[in-house]
Amino acid sequence: MKYYLDEDISPKIAELLRKYQIDAISAHEVGMTQALDKEQLEYAVSKGRCMVTRNRNDYIRLTVQFFNEHRPHYGVLIIPYTLAGDKFSLIANALKKYTSKHPSGMESYTIDFLEA
Questions:
Q1: Sign of CA dihedral 48, 52, 57, 58
Q2: 2-113 belongs to CATH 3.30.420
Q3: I need a surface site. Which of 6, 59, 76, 85 has the fewest CB within 10 A?
Q4: Residue 92 CB: number of other CB atoms within 10 A?
């Protein structure tokens, strides 16, 4: 499982994931802040990564669009607002747990919600 964290997720979470030997990069680390959601998803796809975001509605719409256009897609994992954004360790541990359940990554066009 390879993650690309949207700009609405702290880059500290990507750092914590890498300490767990999980392949994760952040939009902040690769200079993609201020990019449109579609550009964020295209970047994730270009790197073969699952998109991790809090922006549920836009990424559900984009996933449907990518499906209809037969464009590559490596899944979208949504972090719900019930997981506070400043709980870096909690979110990183939840992503670690998710990774252990999906070591080969998500199926194309899958949208899932992270649980604590």
A1: negative
A2: no
A3: 85
A4: 22
